[in-house]
Amino acid sequence: MLRATLLCISLILTALVQAEPVAWDRDDDDWRSSRSEHFVIHFRSGYQDMARYALSVAERVHTELVPFFGQAPDVPTQMVLADDVDYSNGWATPLPFSQIRLFVSPPEDVAGLEHMDDWLHGLIRHEYVHVLHMNMAQGVPQKGRSLFGRLPWFFPHVFTPPTFIEGLAVYLETNHEQGYGRLDGTYYDMQMRVEVANGIDSLDKAVIPLRDWPRGKAYLYGAYFMAYIAETYGDEALSRYLRLYSRQILPFFMQNSTARRVFGKSFAGLWQDYQQWLEARFSARNQALMADLREGESLPLVPGYRRKTAAMGDQLWLVTNNSEERSFIARWSDPQAGGELQEQEPVRGAADLDVAADGRVVLSRQIARVSGRVIDDVFIWTDELGYERLTDDMRLRKVRWSADQQSVIASRKDAGLSELWQLWPDGRQQRLWQSEQHQVLGDFDVCADGRLVAAIKMPGQGWNLAEYLPAAGSWRLLTDTRATENGPECQTDGRVLFSADYDGVYNLYVLDPGTGLVQQLTRVLGGAFEPRQLASGVVYQSYTADGFQLMKLNNPQPLAVFNIGEKQGRYDYQPAVSELVSMSESAYSPWSTLRPHYWVPLWSVSDHSTSVGLNTGGSDALGRHMYDVTVLWDTDNSWADFSLTYLYDNRWFLGWLRSHEIHDLDLGIEDDWYATQEDTFLLQRTNLVSALEDRLNLHLGISAEHQSLALRQDWMPAIAGLEETLAGAALTFDNRLLLRNVHGIGWGSYADLVYESNDVLNSDYSGKQWQSRWQHTFDLAGRDSFAFQIMGGIADRGAEAFSLGGEVSEETLLFGRDRFALPGYVNGVQFGHKYYVGEVAYTAWLDRIEDNYGLLPLGIGDISGRLWYREGSAWFRQQHTPSLASVGAELNVDVVIAYRAVLPITIGVAQGLDEDLGENTVYVRSQVAF
């Protein structure tokens, strides 16, 4: 029991304080650090200018936000500039110290983040709201930190719904007077307008948005909820609530009582008023829009995420992406209702695509590396040759064929700057253009006459359409408005088809660059995006309550005509900072943040043992070094139990666990017990060599277990110790996919081949052992899946035997696995130096609840059922052990703890089929990966 307690404490607290490591496979891995009054920023060499600008922005944001919160961290907040991923994001946490991760990738698509004065200012402001918000503490929580350090339970606002946390950040990132922030933009207005039309979520559903549409529902509902609170009760009341709640020692259970003190109502009552506020704000407009809809016909594809599409003649090419099945490149020869969709080739991580007249498809794919980098590269696909890789680690996201279709024009974001490149199939590459600071290139298209038209954000302005001038290496604006114009598509007559929000709703328009005349083609309730011109009409993506729906507008006719000059308007945002802070830099050192920032007192009492101790741990600002230490001293028996773990990136793991177990013989006499000591040591080097887009990896590991007698009574015989030390290597292949609407693995294979030897280091066992397994999941229609797995192993005579039986196993381990489950039989029903286990299983998705019990920290997510058949055997050489089989059924429930932590609970029943050894068992288990 004590051993399990040590493991649980170590895993839980390590998970709470661990950080995401920066990527590690770059040649320029020279990290630098600089400091201002309230921040320390860490950055790779070459990013000095951006780091200085970020520090300056952060100091401005600090000055503006601290008065609202009334307090700030008492030590500088650590910020990291990480240029490792090809998408826009960031994160912040107060644990184990105040830190912000900034992804150096400006947003380029219309998805909410586009409506900012400056992308880095918006990102820093949003994340620093999180830091100030979650750091708030007064009274007992503040005193608890001074005594025990930065433990999670002394941060009351950490234990509030993400709807409140993200909503506050979106509310405070918005500036209506200057015209930036998501609450000032059309995209959030569109999303909430559609939510109101479809039915507003209850509070129970809004506090645990896991997989439900729209993605990012916590941001959307939370932002408008905070706006409602501020409009109804005032910013001061909202600030007062935050201050009062920061005194609570039972944060989950004191949210409603604190709300009553400030607002006079519980959150349930506030949410009802909020729903009425939303209805009053959006319903009249929805009715007006519904009364005059002009939209296309739905294509027979289920709505979901925005699909990547391209048009050629009267063929629509697309990437199927419904979050239920793996994606394919597909062709729709007749994109009318009932048209035939022909799937061509599976595709993984498609970011963009275009098609040539001869059927060649160019696409960019987002590839996740084991190093932590997530980057896009360009491929060409043909029906005859399949995929041909055109670039390697070039980070190119948007792709279009050139006018002569002999080369590819692609864009990328690198070091925060936008670039255009031209690529030829023979390997030649040329950079065509690089942006200035604060200039962001969005979607673009190449016209038949060679012109390149794009959506572009100029410094201090919003998004406009522009034409690239190759001779000057610059852009000529085709529009200059306060609308967000996006998704340009060239037409054969030289006009440009695009999406824009001139009247507050994203609709489709056609611009004649020569005359400036604009024709409106749609009037929709939600929004119309990414138009594609076909011979018979226009296909576009319409935002709905269930996702983006592909629509076909046949023979589009103008609904209104105006001159683009009538929409003239500029933002003229003031610079995010008027003066840059002074900055000196030094080489990065992990030691300033790596020190322990908390300690947890521990106490354990049993019949023959009394233990006291502590737990601590930490990580550095880059997340490269993570450690956890748990130590318990048994005052009755004068021995120590401890757990020491250290992780470097995701490459090195070192762990040492010592535990003592007391065995009571229950003989009815005094002192009829003895104690054993077990030491477990693990050293693992993962991802030593990688291939096949990092899905094939080589790992090395050493595991050692030493069992000995720690204490015995004088009348008991001595027991010899036992030591097993295995050194090994493992080759793994993993191309499994997680699909948003499928419970568990959605599709793909995992396979490994593991070799371990007892003869490298001292061991009471001898010889070597080989093991291998293969698991594959098929994506069935809808949200169901079918999977099989086969595993087996062979060990020399002197090695430890494999064990089969029971519900508990070590199958998820890579090294040192020798215990395999067979429900319906007792533990160790068979054992030997050879084994095999096979299983087939059918998983059916049953329901999506996504409902919380008010503001209590308990909710339910997805529910699925599983039927399985499992067979296996373990035997020694020269034996003829019969195979044992069992069948079973499971109910899998995602239990949501504290609004965000998903704890999968499995309730199962198994029946062993052997007449003599089989039994009926009922089991409950949960498996969480850290």
From TrEMBL:
Query: Which keywords label this protein?
Result: Signal
Which residue positions does the secretion signal occupy? 1-19
- Highest taxon listed in the record's lineage: Bacteria
Q: Which Gene3D superfamilies match?
A: membrane protein fhac: a member of the omp85/tpsb transporter family, TolB, C-terminal domain
Q: What is this protein called?
A: Bacterial surface antigen (D15) domain-containing protein
Which species is this UniProt entry from? Thalassolituus marinus
